[in-house]
Write a structure and sequence with these properties.
The protein has 5 helices and no strands.
């Protein structure tokens, strides 16, 4: 629990074929509550959240569990700074669109034809003899 309590991800885009191993709580943003996602993203990345999650965890280190009822008890503060909220809203929108890295954004832009493609001859295999 100590090492994994701060790990999370958002299945953005079309998560139809997504497979996730045990040990994850699956959360969905309630309809009409999308504006709260930046608050949740901020909270999940703080030691304040991790302390609360560890305090509620039950079981041994290797098999610790955070029961759903306790997960719902974790306090998530509202972001009150407008600039901070705007920054996190942008991140939230990118994550929900399936963009979690610069590489995923560049791939999307290339596919949409928004970036120039340079065509190079592909290698015959993964290794090149020098």
């Amino acid at each position: 629990m100590w090492g994994s309590v701060g790990k999370w991800f958002i299945a953005g885009g079309d998560p139809t074929n997504l497979v996730v191993s045990n040990g994850f709580h699956r959360l969905r943003v309630k309809a009409g509550k999308e504006h709260c996602l930046p608050d949740l993203l901020a909270a999940l990345n703080t030691e304040t959240y991790r302390i609360q999650a560890r305090a509620y965890a039950a079981g041994s280190d290797g098999l610790a569990e955070l029961p759903e009822v306790d997960l719902k008890s974790i306090v998530v503060p509202k972001i009150t700074d407008p600039a901070a909220r705007k920054s996190l809203e942008k991140v939230a929108a990118d994550l929900r669109a399936g963009r979690s890295t610069v590489a995923s954004l560049v791939s999307e832009l290339l596919t949409a034809g928004q970036l120039a493609k340079i065509y190079v001859r592909t290698r015959s295999g993964p290794f090149v003899q020098v």
